[in-house]
Amino acid sequence: MFSSNSWTKCLICLIFITSGNSECPKPQVEGNQHVVLTNDALLKNDFSEGSEATFECANGYVKDQGSESITCTSGEWSTLELTCKKKDCGAPMEMPHLTYEFDKEGTLFGASARAFCDKGYQIQGSSYRQCYATGWSGRSRCEVVTCEEPIDIMNGVISKNHGKQFPEYGDVIQYSCDEGYTLIGNKSIECNEDGEYNSFFPECKDVNDIPLKPTTISTTSASITTTWTVPTIQVSGTHHGIGEHDTNTATISGRYHGIGEHDINAATSKIIQVIIILSL
Protein backbone atom coordinates (compact mmCIF):
# COMPACT_ATOMS: atom_id res chain seq x y z
CA MET A 1 0.00 0.00 0.00
CA PHE A 2 1.07 3.54 -0.68
CA SER A 3 1.79 5.79 2.23
CA SER A 4 0.20 9.20 2.46
CA ASN A 5 3.50 10.78 1.48
CA SER A 6 3.61 8.74 -1.72
CA TRP A 7 0.10 9.87 -2.73
CA THR A 8 1.05 13.45 -2.10
CA LYS A 9 4.12 13.19 -4.32
CA CYS A 10 2.10 11.60 -7.15
CA LEU A 11 -0.53 14.30 -6.97
CA ILE A 12 2.14 17.00 -7.20
CA CYS A 13 3.64 15.29 -10.26
CA LEU A 14 0.24 15.08 -11.97
CA ILE A 15 -0.43 18.75 -11.34
CA PHE A 16 3.00 19.65 -12.72
CA ILE A 17 2.50 17.49 -15.83
CA THR A 18 -1.00 18.86 -16.41
CA SER A 19 0.04 22.47 -15.97
CA GLY A 20 3.11 21.96 -18.14
CA ASN A 21 1.02 20.63 -21.06
CA SER A 22 -1.85 23.14 -20.79
CA GLU A 23 -3.02 24.73 -24.09
CA CYS A 24 -4.32 28.18 -24.87
CA PRO A 25 -7.58 28.79 -26.69
CA LYS A 26 -7.58 30.21 -30.20
CA PRO A 27 -6.54 33.87 -29.83
CA GLN A 28 -9.20 36.50 -30.31
CA VAL A 29 -8.92 40.16 -31.12
CA GLU A 30 -10.83 42.29 -28.65
CA GLY A 31 -11.29 46.04 -28.83
CA ASN A 32 -8.89 46.45 -31.74
CA GLN A 33 -10.67 46.19 -35.07
CA HIS A 34 -7.63 47.27 -37.05
CA VAL A 35 -5.60 44.14 -36.11
CA VAL A 36 -6.18 40.62 -37.49
CA LEU A 37 -4.56 37.20 -37.12
CA THR A 38 -2.16 36.17 -39.83
CA ASN A 39 -3.20 33.34 -42.15
CA ASP A 40 -0.84 30.91 -40.37
CA ALA A 41 -2.45 31.65 -37.01
CA LEU A 42 -5.96 31.35 -38.48
CA LEU A 43 -5.23 27.86 -39.90
CA LYS A 44 -3.71 26.57 -36.66
CA ASN A 45 -6.02 24.79 -34.19
CA ASP A 46 -3.73 23.83 -31.29
CA PHE A 47 -1.79 26.34 -29.25
CA SER A 48 0.33 24.51 -26.67
CA GLU A 49 2.32 25.98 -23.85
CA GLY A 50 4.96 28.38 -25.17
CA SER A 51 3.52 28.62 -28.69
CA GLU A 52 3.08 31.98 -30.41
CA ALA A 53 0.36 33.57 -32.49
CA THR A 54 1.07 36.41 -34.84
CA PHE A 55 -1.08 39.38 -35.88
CA GLU A 56 -0.97 41.97 -38.62
CA CYS A 57 -2.68 45.23 -39.46
CA ALA A 58 -6.03 45.12 -41.23
CA ASN A 59 -6.43 46.18 -44.85
CA GLY A 60 -5.82 49.91 -45.23
CA TYR A 61 -3.81 50.14 -41.99
CA VAL A 62 -0.08 50.04 -41.30
CA LYS A 63 1.95 49.24 -38.18
CA ASP A 64 2.32 52.09 -35.75
CA GLN A 65 4.21 50.35 -32.91
CA GLY A 66 4.45 47.19 -30.74
CA SER A 67 5.13 43.51 -31.30
CA GLU A 68 3.01 41.49 -33.72
CA SER A 69 3.10 38.25 -31.63
CA ILE A 70 1.72 36.91 -28.36
CA THR A 71 2.81 33.85 -26.30
CA CYS A 72 0.80 31.08 -24.61
CA THR A 73 1.82 30.81 -20.95
CA SER A 74 -0.01 28.63 -18.41
CA GLY A 75 -3.08 28.49 -20.62
CA GLU A 76 -3.26 32.24 -21.15
CA TRP A 77 -2.10 34.56 -23.88
CA SER A 78 0.20 37.48 -23.28
CA THR A 79 -1.04 40.98 -24.02
CA LEU A 80 -0.93 42.09 -27.65
CA GLU A 81 1.06 45.30 -28.03
CA LEU A 82 0.62 45.86 -31.77
CA THR A 83 -1.16 49.10 -32.74
CA CYS A 84 -2.04 50.16 -36.27
CA LYS A 85 -2.92 53.42 -37.98
CA LYS A 86 -4.58 54.38 -41.25
CA LYS A 87 -2.46 54.31 -44.34
CA ASP A 88 -1.70 57.74 -45.82
CA CYS A 89 -2.07 57.82 -49.60
CA GLY A 90 -0.36 61.19 -49.78
CA ALA A 91 -1.36 63.88 -52.26
CA PRO A 92 -2.30 62.65 -55.74
CA MET A 93 0.23 63.24 -58.49
CA GLU A 94 0.29 66.86 -59.64
CA MET A 95 -1.07 67.56 -63.10
CA PRO A 96 -1.25 70.84 -65.07
CA HIS A 97 -4.36 72.97 -64.40
CA LEU A 98 -5.67 70.37 -61.88
CA THR A 99 -6.44 70.82 -58.16
CA TYR A 100 -8.14 68.62 -55.55
CA GLU A 101 -10.59 69.27 -52.74
CA PHE A 102 -10.30 66.74 -49.87
CA ASP A 103 -12.88 65.67 -47.29
CA LYS A 104 -12.25 65.67 -43.52
CA GLU A 105 -10.09 62.52 -43.76
CA GLY A 106 -7.54 64.38 -45.85
CA THR A 107 -5.30 61.86 -47.61
CA LEU A 108 -5.80 58.94 -45.18
CA PHE A 109 -7.30 55.55 -46.01
CA GLY A 110 -10.97 55.90 -46.90
CA ALA A 111 -10.71 59.58 -47.79
CA SER A 112 -12.17 60.96 -51.01
CA ALA A 113 -10.96 63.81 -53.20
CA ARG A 114 -12.80 65.83 -55.84
CA ALA A 115 -10.90 67.01 -58.91
CA PHE A 116 -11.25 70.55 -60.29
CA CYS A 117 -9.85 72.13 -63.46
CA ASP A 118 -8.82 75.73 -64.07
CA LYS A 119 -11.09 78.01 -66.09
CA GLY A 120 -11.15 76.97 -69.73
CA TYR A 121 -10.26 73.34 -68.97
CA GLN A 122 -12.41 70.25 -68.43
CA ILE A 123 -12.00 66.98 -66.49
CA GLN A 124 -10.97 63.85 -68.33
CA GLY A 125 -11.12 60.67 -66.26
CA SER A 126 -12.33 60.51 -62.66
CA SER A 127 -14.04 63.50 -61.05
CA TYR A 128 -13.78 61.79 -57.63
CA ARG A 129 -10.96 59.62 -56.31
CA GLN A 130 -10.78 57.34 -53.25
CA CYS A 131 -7.81 56.49 -51.02
CA TYR A 132 -7.62 52.67 -50.97
CA ALA A 133 -5.08 50.32 -49.42
CA THR A 134 -3.33 50.24 -52.80
CA GLY A 135 -3.38 54.04 -53.24
CA TRP A 136 -5.64 56.51 -55.01
CA SER A 137 -8.30 55.11 -57.30
CA GLY A 138 -8.72 56.26 -60.89
CA ARG A 139 -6.87 58.94 -62.81
CA SER A 140 -7.71 62.58 -63.48
CA ARG A 141 -6.37 65.15 -65.91
CA CYS A 142 -7.49 68.46 -67.38
CA GLU A 143 -7.76 69.17 -71.09
CA VAL A 144 -8.26 72.59 -72.64
CA VAL A 145 -11.76 73.40 -73.92
CA THR A 146 -12.02 73.64 -77.71
CA CYS A 147 -14.56 75.27 -80.01
CA GLU A 148 -15.88 74.04 -83.34
CA GLU A 149 -13.86 74.57 -86.47
CA PRO A 150 -14.40 78.16 -87.72
CA ILE A 151 -16.40 78.35 -90.94
CA ASP A 152 -15.29 79.94 -94.18
CA ILE A 153 -17.38 82.94 -95.15
CA MET A 154 -18.33 83.93 -98.69
CA ASN A 155 -16.35 86.81 -100.16
CA GLY A 156 -14.05 86.81 -97.14
CA VAL A 157 -11.18 84.98 -95.49
CA ILE A 158 -9.95 84.00 -92.04
CA SER A 159 -7.05 86.34 -91.46
CA LYS A 160 -5.99 84.83 -88.10
CA ASN A 161 -6.70 81.36 -86.66
CA HIS A 162 -3.57 80.32 -84.67
CA GLY A 163 -2.98 77.44 -87.10
CA LYS A 164 -5.37 75.09 -85.26
CA GLN A 165 -8.27 73.15 -86.74
CA PHE A 166 -10.22 73.50 -83.50
CA PRO A 167 -9.50 76.75 -81.64
CA GLU A 168 -8.80 76.44 -77.93
CA TYR A 169 -10.10 78.46 -75.00
CA GLY A 170 -8.97 82.08 -75.36
CA ASP A 171 -8.04 81.81 -79.04
CA VAL A 172 -9.28 84.68 -81.21
CA ILE A 173 -10.35 84.19 -84.83
CA GLN A 174 -10.27 87.21 -87.16
CA TYR A 175 -12.06 87.67 -90.48
CA SER A 176 -11.64 90.14 -93.34
CA CYS A 177 -13.59 90.71 -96.55
CA ASP A 178 -12.57 90.78 -100.20
CA GLU A 179 -12.31 94.09 -102.04
CA GLY A 180 -15.69 95.64 -102.66
CA TYR A 181 -17.31 93.93 -99.67
CA THR A 182 -17.94 95.14 -96.16
CA LEU A 183 -17.93 93.13 -92.92
CA ILE A 184 -21.27 92.68 -91.15
CA GLY A 185 -20.83 91.55 -87.54
CA ASN A 186 -17.75 91.28 -85.35
CA LYS A 187 -14.37 91.17 -87.03
CA SER A 188 -12.98 89.03 -84.18
CA ILE A 189 -14.63 86.15 -82.31
CA GLU A 190 -13.19 84.39 -79.25
CA CYS A 191 -13.47 80.79 -78.03
CA ASN A 192 -15.13 80.85 -74.59
CA GLU A 193 -14.70 78.53 -71.60
CA ASP A 194 -17.95 76.70 -72.45
CA GLY A 195 -16.72 75.70 -75.91
CA GLU A 196 -18.83 78.33 -77.70
CA TYR A 197 -17.76 81.47 -79.52
CA ASN A 198 -18.60 84.81 -77.93
CA SER A 199 -20.23 86.03 -81.14
CA PHE A 200 -21.84 84.76 -84.34
CA PHE A 201 -19.69 84.34 -87.42
CA PRO A 202 -19.62 87.56 -89.48
CA GLU A 203 -20.69 88.00 -93.13
CA CYS A 204 -19.30 89.92 -96.10
CA LYS A 205 -21.82 91.98 -98.08
CA ASP A 206 -21.47 93.85 -101.36
CA VAL A 207 -21.12 97.56 -100.67
CA ASN A 208 -23.82 98.37 -103.24
CA ASP A 209 -26.27 95.97 -101.57
CA ILE A 210 -26.26 97.83 -98.24
CA PRO A 211 -29.15 100.34 -98.29
CA LEU A 212 -29.12 103.60 -96.37
CA LYS A 213 -31.91 103.92 -93.87
CA PRO A 214 -34.40 106.63 -95.01
CA THR A 215 -35.41 109.48 -92.74
CA THR A 216 -38.51 111.69 -93.15
CA ILE A 217 -38.15 115.43 -92.50
CA SER A 218 -41.21 117.66 -92.22
CA THR A 219 -41.55 121.45 -91.93
CA THR A 220 -44.88 123.05 -91.17
CA SER A 221 -45.76 126.71 -91.63
CA ALA A 222 -49.33 127.87 -91.20
CA SER A 223 -51.42 125.42 -93.22
CA ILE A 224 -48.60 124.27 -95.51
CA THR A 225 -46.66 121.06 -94.79
CA THR A 226 -43.64 120.11 -96.88
CA THR A 227 -42.08 116.62 -96.56
CA TRP A 228 -38.83 115.19 -98.00
CA THR A 229 -37.47 111.65 -97.72
CA VAL A 230 -33.71 111.55 -97.95
CA PRO A 231 -30.89 109.24 -96.81
CA THR A 232 -30.11 109.10 -93.12
CA ILE A 233 -29.10 112.67 -92.31
CA GLN A 234 -29.63 115.06 -89.50
CA VAL A 235 -31.21 118.44 -90.27
CA SER A 236 -31.56 121.37 -87.95
CA GLY A 237 -33.33 124.66 -88.62
CA THR A 238 -35.62 127.25 -87.11
CA HIS A 239 -38.31 129.34 -88.73
CA HIS A 240 -38.06 132.72 -87.13
CA GLY A 241 -40.89 134.61 -88.71
CA ILE A 242 -42.05 136.48 -91.80
CA GLY A 243 -39.15 136.85 -94.20
CA GLU A 244 -36.72 135.03 -91.94
CA HIS A 245 -35.39 131.61 -92.64
CA ASP A 246 -32.36 129.33 -92.02
CA THR A 247 -30.28 127.46 -94.48
CA ASN A 248 -30.29 123.78 -93.43
CA THR A 249 -27.28 121.79 -94.52
CA ALA A 250 -27.36 117.98 -94.18
CA THR A 251 -24.25 115.86 -94.46
CA ILE A 252 -23.57 112.12 -94.53
CA SER A 253 -20.15 110.63 -93.95
CA GLY A 254 -18.42 107.69 -95.48
CA ARG A 255 -14.91 106.51 -96.12
CA TYR A 256 -13.53 103.59 -98.08
CA HIS A 257 -10.57 102.13 -96.21
CA GLY A 258 -9.50 99.25 -98.35
CA ILE A 259 -10.43 95.68 -99.05
CA GLY A 260 -13.91 95.04 -97.66
CA GLU A 261 -13.87 97.77 -94.98
CA HIS A 262 -16.14 100.81 -94.72
CA ASP A 263 -16.87 103.27 -91.97
CA ILE A 264 -20.13 105.20 -92.48
CA ASN A 265 -19.25 107.53 -89.56
CA ALA A 266 -15.64 108.40 -90.43
CA ALA A 267 -14.91 111.00 -93.13
CA THR A 268 -17.55 113.59 -94.11
CA SER A 269 -18.58 114.38 -97.68
CA LYS A 270 -21.23 116.87 -98.62
CA ILE A 271 -23.89 115.09 -100.69
CA ILE A 272 -27.00 117.20 -100.36
CA GLN A 273 -27.94 120.72 -99.34
CA VAL A 274 -31.53 121.47 -98.51
CA ILE A 275 -32.58 125.13 -98.55
CA ILE A 276 -35.97 125.75 -97.04
CA ILE A 277 -37.49 129.16 -97.68
CA LEU A 278 -40.71 129.77 -95.89
CA SER A 279 -42.63 133.00 -96.35
CA LEU A 280 -46.11 133.98 -95.61
Automatic annotation (TrEMBL):
InterPro entries in UniProt: Compl-Cell_Adhes-Reg, Sushi/SCR/CCP_sf, Sushi_SCR_CCP_dom
Keywords of the record: Disulfide bond, Glycoprotein, Repeat, Signal, Sushi
Family annotation (Pfam families): Sushi
Disulfide bond entries: C57-C84, C177-C204
SMART domains per UniProt: CCP
Signal peptide residues on this chain, from the entry's feature table: 1-22
This protein's name: Sushi domain-containing protein
Keyword Nucleotide-binding: no
Every Sushi domain range: 22-86, 87-144, 145-206
Taxonomic source organism: Hucho hucho (huchen)
Gene3D superfamilies to which the protein is assigned, alphabetical: Complement Module, domain 1
